[in-house]
């Protein structure tokens, strides 16, 4: 099969198309012919050499496509979206990919949205569950414009919460377009936005003391990005692949919300060149997800 892979660590230019053996689904898994794959922070970190794994490596943890080796609840020909096994941390940016968890893709959902979002949806869902976000609450998302942050905004709004989202100056209008009230990064949230019921730290910019102040207690804050959280009494939620398998329920719920017109996956750009996609993902503050298109 063809695959985008790298044989040495380095900048995006190390990515190249080549031939590699096809993967096959094990029990409990499913294989797809990939249409689109997302670019996640873990992909950038691994490619840059921050996690030493065996080479060659195929990046990509999120993908969408058409099933060609069936798995539980998925028949050949089904259109699905999902993510790879957490132990592999890659394999999606290829002709074929094996998914460890997935859901049916809504017929109207664009392939770009489907391929970008699985791990981010599960990660955001897990964090919102930990915060018990529900109708009538006010939630602050610190880092609302990026891939996971923008998904957390949409999912919190779908639960009936009011959302305040922090972002860089150039992304304030984007955060507003998501349905959140935008505010700049910084401290002094209490004086700027007033008290909130819960806060989610996606940015990892050292804001935990300010988030504790604005919520009134550490138990109302969850961080995805600051592993000093326990020192502040703040819970750290699992990152990119969204927690333990038995706890994953976000994909099917998000698909239903999409079908009902209550949720979308913000996509900043779609590339056919994986190196260009990685360069874009590294270039600065994000406005949603970056996607690689693998096939028509």
Oligomer: single chain
Strand percentage lies at: 15-25%
How far is it from the N-terminal to the C-terminal residue, by CA? 16 Å
Summing up helix and strand content along with how strands pair, one would put the structural category as alpha/beta
Q: Which architecture of the largest domain does the CATH hierarchy give at level 2?
A: Alpha-Beta Complex
Average pLDDT number: 93
Task: Enumerate how many helices there are, as a single number.
Answer: 9
What form results from the Cα inertia axes? Answer: globular
Looking at the structure, the CATH topology of the largest domain is: Quinone Oxidoreductase, Chain A, domain 1
Provide the low-confidence segments as ranges.
240-245
- Major pleated sheet: 7 strands, mixed
How many DSSP E strands?
15
- Using the coordinates above, name the CATH class of the largest domain: Alpha Beta
Number of domains: 2
């Amino acid at each position: 099969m063809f695959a985008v892979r790298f044989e040495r660590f380095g900048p995006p230019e190390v990515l190249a198309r080549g031939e590699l053996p096809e993967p096959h689904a094990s029990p409990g898994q499913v294989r797809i012919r990939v249409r689109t794959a997302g670019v996640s922070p873990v992909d950038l970190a691994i490619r840059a050499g921050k996690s030493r794994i065996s080479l060659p490596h195929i990046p990509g943890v999120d993908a969408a496509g058409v099933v060609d080796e069936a798995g539980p609840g998925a028949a050949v020909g089904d259109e699905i979206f999902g993510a790879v096994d957490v132990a592999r941390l890659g394999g999606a940016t290829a002709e074929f990919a094996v998914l460890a968890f997935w859901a049916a893709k809504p017929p109207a959902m664009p392939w770009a949205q489907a391929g970008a979002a699985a791990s981010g949806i599960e990660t955001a869902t897990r964090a919102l569950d930990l915060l018990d976000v529900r109708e009538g609450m006010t939630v602050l998302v610190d880092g609302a414009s990026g891939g996971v942050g923008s998904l957390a905004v949409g999912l919190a709004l779908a639960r009936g919460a009011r959302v305040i989202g922090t972002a860089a100056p150039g992304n304030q209008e984007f955060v507003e377009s998501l349905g959140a009230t935008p505010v700049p990064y910084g401290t002094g949230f209490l004086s700027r936005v007033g008290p909130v019921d819960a806060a989610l730290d996606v940015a990892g910019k050292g804001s935990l003391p300010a988030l504790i102040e604005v919520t009134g207690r550490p138990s109302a804050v969850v961080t995805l990005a600051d592993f000093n959280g326990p020192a502040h009494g703040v819970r750290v939620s699992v990152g990119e692949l969204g927690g333990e398998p038995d706890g994953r329920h976000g994909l099917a719920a998000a698909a239903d919300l999409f079908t009902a017109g209550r949720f979308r996956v913000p996509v900043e750009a779609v590339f056919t060149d994986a190196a260009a996609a990685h360069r874009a993902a590294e270039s600065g503050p994000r406005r949603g997800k970056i996607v690689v298109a693998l096939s028509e």
